[in-house]
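Work Package 3 (structural annotation) set out to generate three-dimensional models for the target panel prioritized at the project kickoff. During this period the team completed the workflow that converts sequence records into discrete structure tokens, so that structures can be stored uniformly alongside our sequence database. As a representative example, we reproduce one entry of 413 residues exactly as it appears in the project archive.
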Amino acid sequence: MASNRSRVAMHHDKPRRLCVRRTLMSVAAMISFLLAACSMPGGQPTPTPAALPVYTPMAEAAPISAGAPTAEAAPVRQQGAAPARTNYTAEIIPQDQVPVVAEVAGQVLDLSIEVGDRVEAGEVIVRIDSSTLEAQRAQAMAGLEAAKAQLDLLQDEPEDEDIEAARASVTAAEEAYQRALAGPTAEELRMAEAQLRQAEAAVKQAQAAYDQVSWNPLIAALPESMQLEAATLALEAAQAQYDKLVLGATADIIAGAYAQLANARAQLKRLEDGAKPAQIQAAQAQVRQAETALYLAQLQLDKASVRAPISGIVASVNTSAGTMVAPGSPLAVLISPEVEVVIAVEESRLADLSAGQPAVIRVDAYSDRTYDGQIAIIAPTLDPATRTVQVTIRPTGDATDLAPGMFATVALP
């Protein structure tokens, strides 16, 4: 039984052994072919590879002369030899780019610029409504005039008439104060009592006339009723006046009379002695404060006329007539007609750079032209991330064709 199983297994493994044998034969044939190829007639060794030019980053390859070896044309910098010209790419940018913003709030009344216009420094380009600012300036002017008038009053010598008037005021205030202290005179009491008796008689007369028509249902609308009421009110007023005189002046009346007397005496003393130095200094300080307020009001009024900060070209306009603006609102952007290129130069070339070093600028828009330039600024620090230094190149010749935003290539020796 076991023998039969062995025969069956050997029968099934026979195709697998044939496949392995064929594979080994194929591998042997491949090895034989390769050995035959390596033993070609002649027995010459493998030729040495041709010399290829060494690649230098960002270096401009020198032209290869006809028939010159490739190895000799490689731009490899030797000790003491002139450095290879290196190209850097960047964009043309304006030397100055200044945003123009509103400094006061208001409505834009006039906008006299458009994109592409040339403006001069100090030229009015936007006008903002200044009605409120003009009113504030007028108010500041009035405050200055009042402060100056007060100072003049303190510094001027008083007139004789002013002193006499002040003395008369003091005399009148003293008499009023003494009357308040002494109380009413006998004459004033008699006059008050007479007025009281007269009011009582008027009430009796009105009462008699009223009694004659009191039977009338419409008595309230008759003149007799109104006359009685008016006479009664007059009697009450006369009685109150009489009682006041009899009681004499109260404490508040005496205090008021004394305050008027003190004020009149102080005014007379100021006129006779003149202003004190401290008073003059205070008045002078008020004048200076008013002058400062007027200056600030005028400054705000001047800012309603927005002027160009530089001479240049209008790059963009961010507002329009009728728009309400606030301080800080963007109005326009001005750029200078002069342009420049800022390139990033690797750290290894920093020792070769110097201000005034020539450069050549090319732009894709005018591929057949070159523009002379030179290094204007070398940044004092390097970018630690890229290990490069910012170098500013400015054209030295006619560069009117160069516009901000153009893609440029700068060649440095």
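The chain is about 45% helix and 20% strand.
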